[in-house]
Amino acid sequence: METPRLLPWTDSSVTSALEEQRITAREQLKAAWQLHVERVEEQLTAGWKEQIDRVLEDRFAELASRVEEEFGREISARIAGQRETLRRETAEQLNQAARRMRQSESGDDLHAVLLDAAAAFCDRAVLFAIEGGALRCAGARGLDPDAAGALLVAEAPLEASPAAAGVVESLDTVVAMRTAGELSETLASALGEDSAGRSFFFPVVCQGKAVGLLYADGDETRLHTAALELLTALAGGALDSRRPAATAAPSGLVTIGGQAPGPRSTPPDWPALPPEDRDLHLRAQRFARVQVAEMRLYKPREVRSGRLSSNLYADLRGDIDAGREAFRLQFAVSCPTMVDYFHLELVRTLANDDPALLGPEYPGPLV
Known about the structure:
367 residues, alpha+beta, Beta-Lactamase, 2 domains, six-stranded antiparallel beta sheet, 6 strands, globular
């Protein structure tokens, strides 16, 4: 009998190829989410009231269509007036929440606004801050006093809560069963374990990272996930507007292309900036995040190759040069206080906080 021919690959090569594809896919998903967040934030900033009205109108139009199919035109006509009233009330609730978030003077004020608004769209809401790899309760609505008290004094490690850890990793909403295996022993004990119940975790994202989580559960007729996602996006936008972008590595650790970072590679005196300059800085930060996220999403092979060879600039020269020039013309030349946010974002997310990965030919900051 003829000996079967061996396949031209081995188990180890297949495993390596699969792992490489998994890492690339995760990188692209993160970049896609970053682009989504930036576009949502830009829309909210440019015309958040109109966008809320449009989203709600679309959702209620879909609801009306379903009702017509299931119960006929007579019932649809009956609820038309109620639907319009409910739409207006919901839009006003979200508008007020957005306004109060922008006007909040402290983190505690923002937490209270988010929880108060979320309580209208679920039975129970808990806001967790992420500190040192653990969840710390920053407030709750709809819980009985014993459960609320237990959460306020407890800390739940992220690694013990797969649902929460999944939100931090993906920066996306996670639906989980209300069990200790999903929530952790600490959270399940305080919130009440129920294998038939569902819970939702919504990320509060600031500067591309999850800084908090909103937990929500309740009856499906009262639980409105779209509204809760919008509220957490608004809260993240409010936080982003108060914080300058992340800085590059401290001086003395690494320099690129023989150059030390220039004076505009460090954050400005944020409170001292005039309002018009502050708005330009925020738009410059958003521009930089979008440009770099698009490189990670649409050119994953070049990104991976550049990181492995410690020469990202060689693999992405055209995109980086185009981004640098666009940033210079749109922001740097017109604002004396402008920071090179494009360079900082290249270092932070493209080079994973290691400037050496950009390569010896990278020209460094614009100034």
